[in-house]
Amino acid sequence: MPIPRSQLPEHLSGLLGFPVTPFTADGGLDLERFQSHLTDMLEARPSALFVACGTGEFASLTLDEHRRLVEAAVAHVDGAVPVLAGVGGGTHMALEFTDSAARSGADGILVLPPYLQVGPQAGLVEHYRRIATATELGVVPYQRATAVFTPESVRELAALPQVVAFKDGHGDVELLQRIRAATEGRLPLLNGMPTAETAAGAYAGIGVRSYSSATLAFAPAIARAFHDAFTSGDEQTMDLLLREFYVPLTGLRHTTHGYAVALVKAGLDIQGRSAGPVRPPLVDASPQHRDELARIIERGHAAVASAVTA
């Protein structure tokens, strides 16, 4: 039984997990590995899991693969945390994925930007309105790339009962503050920046404390340690983890387009929990970058150990 939409916002406060989509060597879905991946992530106590989203390579999934992933996640998680599914593309395509997510038992959807198409604000609002009004699921619009909203547009969307939160991956804190003012602080805002931990302090400055963690997918102990420090105000531990792990990881991510996903899968593989390759147009991390990532992960775990014993 999906979590009632009215209760979903309280579950979106805290550490949000974004699983990868494991593939076999020949490119098919690896649902067995997906289930063990979810188990690993749940041990870090996320508030919610977002399946088949950006980290989960939504753009390369068929509708049938998307359905199978969401069904597998809902069955495996078994109500422990909410499961939200990624949807996206043009309006009609997004509606098909939204219907599939609802039929598969998802608790909500994260609406990714419509690919390539850039329209005026009225068209953007209408796209999201049609998706929201076609479902009883909780809807979370995702601001980034081709979907950057004015405060007035977000206020329109926030008036829809299906819209339960707003995720930002655009990174304009001033705009987000204006959005917060326009919605009178009633719409929960989520930090959805790549390597969101590096921006956590800036977002917290305007009252946004919930964030999505790609690190949770491949180094859950590090993600948990940072979030615990963030929640308790332990700036010493936060600074240590930022210096030793998150800032170097961000620098590596910036070297190659698509590394926001490829490095997560490489990190899993380095630690003996392979989720297979990424699908084109993404590329797997190069041997040189894998070696660098391995050193960053080692430093991150050492920093966690150091913080625990301090």
Q: Which helices and strands appear, and what pairs or packs with what?
A:
Elements (H helix, E strand, L loop, with lengths): L7 H4 L3 E3 L13 H12 L5 E4 L11 H15 L5 E5 L3 H13 L4 E4 L9 H13 L4 E6 L7 H8 L7 E3 L4 H10 L6 E3 L8 H5 L5 E4 L1 H4 L1 H13 L2 H19 L5 H12 L16 H23 L1
Parallel strand pairs: 1-2, 1-8, 2-3, 3-4, 4-5, 5-6, 6-7, 7-8
General description of the model:
With 310 residues, the protein is of the alpha/beta class. It is built from 13 helices and eight strands. An eight-stranded parallel barrel has the order 1-2-3-4-5-6-7-8, surrounded by four helices. Helix 3 runs parallel beside helix 4, helix 5 packs parallel to helix 6 and helix 12 crosses helix 13. The chain is globular. It starts with 7 loop residues before the first helix and ends with a helix. 48% of the residues are buried. The model has no long low-confidence stretch (mean pLDDT 96).
**Can you write the helix and strand succession as a string?**
HEHEHEHEHEHEHEHEHHHHH
Q: In angstroms, what separates the terminal alpha carbons?
A: 44 Å
Task: Estimate the mean pLDDT confidence.
Answer: 96
Multimeric status of the protein: single chain
Whole-angstrom Rg: 18 Å
Largest sheet: 8 strands, parallel, barrel
Largest beta sheet: strand ordering: 1-2-3-4-5-6-7-8
Portion in helices: 40-55%
Instruction: Characterize the overall form.
Output: globular
**Total count of helical runs of at least 4 residues:** 13
Beta-strand content bin: 5-15%
In total, the number of strands is 8
Uncertain runs are none
Judged by helices, strands and strand pairing, the structural class is alpha/beta
